[in-house]
Known about the structure:
The protein is α+β, with helices and mostly antiparallel strands. It folds into two domains: 139 residues, Alpha-Beta Complex (Nucleoside Triphosphate Pyrophosphohydrolase), CATH 3.90.79; 71 residues, Winged helix-like DNA-binding domain superfamily/Winged helix DNA-binding domain (Arc Repressor Mutant, subunit A), CATH 1.10.10.10. The strands form two sheets. Strands 1, 2, 3, 4, 5 and 6 form a six-stranded mixed beta sheet that branches. Strands 7-9-8 form a three-stranded antiparallel beta sheet. The longest helix has 18 residues. The N and C termini lie far apart (64 Å).
Amino acid sequence: xxxxxxxxxxxxxxxxxxxxxxxxxxxxxxxxxxxxxxxxxxxxxxxxxxxxxxxxxxxxxxxxxxxxxxxxxxxxxxxxxxxxxxxxxxxxxxxxxxxxxxxxxxxxxxxxxxxxxxxxxxxxxxxxxxxxxxxxxxxxxxxxxxxxxxxxxxxxxxxxxxxxxxxxxxxxxxxxxxxxxxxxxxxxxxxxxxxxxxxxxxxxxxxxxxxxxxxxxxxxxxxxxxxxxxxxxx
Length: 234
């Protein structure tokens, strides 16, 4: 080993590692992200993404599961790793390298407390550390996933109507879509099937919408990417 490196080897262990989770859901016609109120000194803003330091005895997956179980009451939800954020000075207490994930859940399946708040992804308050940047990266990955995978159904209850699927795409991409064409593509995709029920909509007159479920087993068997195209209204 190089003598200089050997003499300064302790410097390489003067850093911490953390986990940050960008958790998205769909609720009341909006896509929301779960934020936590910061109580530690040095935080530049009141709100931040959910996160914690990784224990020396943990890998990233174990730490993420511990974070999810302790803060959300469950860890069995859809999540994907984004990337590591390694910039110097990103944490006021010292060198902290974070590994960020994003997850998707149905709104009423997460247990929250007084420190946790859901916020519109496009109207979120300024966040501590570099969490604004992490959120931006997560939104980009989330939107990319909507176009290539069946991730939209991770945010919906088991039974849903087509308008809810359309709403998620329109809100995510902030565009008004060609609804008839979108529904037609979804109906012919083989991803959903009607359950033979109609949903009563509060305050709605006329025909009640059909209720559908996601054919998850069929989708898993295909083991290939999908392409849910959408067409903005000019």
